[in-house]
Every structure is written in structure tokens, then in C-alpha cells.
Design a protein that fits this description.
Elements (H helix, E strand, L loop, with lengths): L6 E7 L4 H9 L5 E8 L5 H8 L3 E4 L14 H12 L6 E4 L16 E5 L14 H10 L3 E8 L9 E8 L6 H28 L9
Parallel strand pairs: 1-2, 1-4, 2-3, 4-5
Antiparallel strand pairs: 5-6, 6-7
Helix pairs in contact: 1-5, 4-5
The structure holds glycinamide ribonucleotide (GAR).
Glycinamide ribonucleotide (GAR) binds next to helix 1, strand 5 and helix 5.
Length: 211
């Protein structure tokens, strides 16, 4: 199989950066070159992880983009993200615990992927992120959960799925237990999906995304 050149990659996050750390730890085995980490909060620990790994960082703080009543203004924040990301012409943008809605400009369609801690379309959509997802799974009595890596479109958690992995959920599992199991899956799933993304790109695939 021909060598795939590393994809010029940016990672967007809002918090702890556990997913970023997984990608950093595995980057030698992945077809990516993480050149920039963008955080939506100044106190995101993911910024520290990036700096420790020698990766450039940028801050686009969601708190600066609010409408009159305090509701987020995603379109204004999206313009600020565009200003950071578009000039650098990334091949791939990985959302990694990025808790903001980024209305994608046409130039980024098919280049942005996200990992979600449930088996989409179940337990996805607006307001479903992080621990809330695992609590919803627990409260539903579901016997299975998992994670999904998908292309990002302008609908929450609804883009084409690249990779899913599942695990059993037992009635005695707490939301934390489910989170732990799912994160173990995520550590394998994001790298697997990135390899698929890179292979498709190298094969000249053009993704027609309905947004
Ligand atoms: C990951 O578990 C990811 O599945 C989840 O955030 C976590 C990483 O956040 N993403 C979502 O819930 C997106 N809807 P962290 O880096 O703050 O630990």
C-alpha cells in the first residue's frame, strides 16, 4: 500500500483534552501531523496538553460570542474560527470534546470529524455531550452503548458515520462505569476512523455532504 503523507491536522476542544492526549500518544502511528489545537475556553486543560506536546495553540473563547440574552452566537464564533482555520488550509479537523456548534464554511465540508460517546443516532443531538450522554444511557436502561466517529455537518451529530464500536452496559453500571468503558473504545475508534479518512482522501474520494 502506498505511503500516505501525514494530514495537516487541527484539533478543536473545550475541556480536559483526553481525546487530544490519545491522539498525541498515538500520532507516530497515525497519518496526521497535529499542527494546531484550538480551545473554546482559556482554562481548557487540553491547551496544557498541547503545549506539553509542542503543538501550537489558539484560543477562540465562546464566552466572547453571545447574543443579547446570553445565548451563544455560533455564527459569530464560527467566523472567528474560520479566521483561524481557513488560512492554514488543514486537511483534517478533529473535534475532540469541542462543546460548541461550528457552522461549517463550504471549504471545510468533508474535512471535519467528531467523536461522540454513544451509538449515534441514539443519545445524540443538541445538549448531548460528555457525562450527560452516559447518564441518559444509564437512565434509559439500554444494554449497549459505544462511540461514533462521524463527519460533521450543520446538523448536530448527524453526519455520515465513519466508525462505531459498542460495549455491553449492565444494570449495575453507573454513568461513570459506562463513561470508562466507552472511553476505552474511543481510544481505538478515533485512530481507526482517522486512518479510514486518510485512505479515502489518498484514494481521491470526494465526499458529497448534505449540510
Ligand atoms: C470524549 O469522550 C468525547 O466523546 C466527548 O468529549 C470527550 C472528550 O472530552 N465528546 C462529546 O461529548 C461531543 N458530543 P475531554 O477532552 O474534555 O475529556
Amino acid at each position: 500500500m502506498p505511503e500516505i503523507p501525514p494530514l495537516k491536522t487541527a484539533v478543536l476542544l473545550s475541556g480536559n483534552g483526553t481525546t487530544l492526549q490519545n491522539l498525541i500518544d498515538r500520532r507516530a502511528a497515525l497519518p496526521i501531523d497535529i499542527q494546531l489545537v484550538v480551545a473554546s475556553r482559556a482554562d481548557a486543560y487540553g491547551l496544557v496538553r498541547a503545549k506539553n506536546a509542542g503543538i501550537a495553540t489558539a484560543l477562540v473563547e465562546s464566552k466572547n460570542f453571545r447574543r443579547g440574552a446570553g445565548a451563544p452566537d455560533w455564527s459569530a464564533m464560527g467566523a472567528a474560527l474560520d479566521a483561524v482555520l481557513l488560512p492554514r488550509r488543514f486537511d483534517l479537523i478533529c473535534l475532540a470534546g469541542f462543546m460548541c456548534f461550528y457552522p461549517l464554511p463550504p471549504a471545510l465540508r468533508g474535512k471535519v470529524i467528531n467523536i461522540h460517546p454513544a451509538l449515534l443516532p441514539a443519545f445524540g443531538g443538541r445538549g448531548m455531550y460528555g457525562r450527560r450522554v452516559h447518564e441518559a444511557v444509564k437512565n434509559s436502561g439500554a444494554t449497549t452503548s459505544g462511540c461514533t466517529v462521524h463527519y460533521v455537518t450543520n446538523d448536530y451529530d448527524a453526519g455520515p458515520i465513519i466508525w462505531q464500536a459498542s460495549c455491553a452496559v449492565s444494570p449495575t453500571d453507573t454513568a461513570d462505569d459506562i463513561a470508562h468503558k466507552v472511553f476505552q473504545l474511543e481510544c481505538e475508534a478515533y485512530p481507526a476512523a482517522i486512518k479510514i479518512f486518510a485512505e479515502k482522501l489518498a484514494g481521491g474520494a470526494v465526499l458529497e455532504l448534505r449540510v
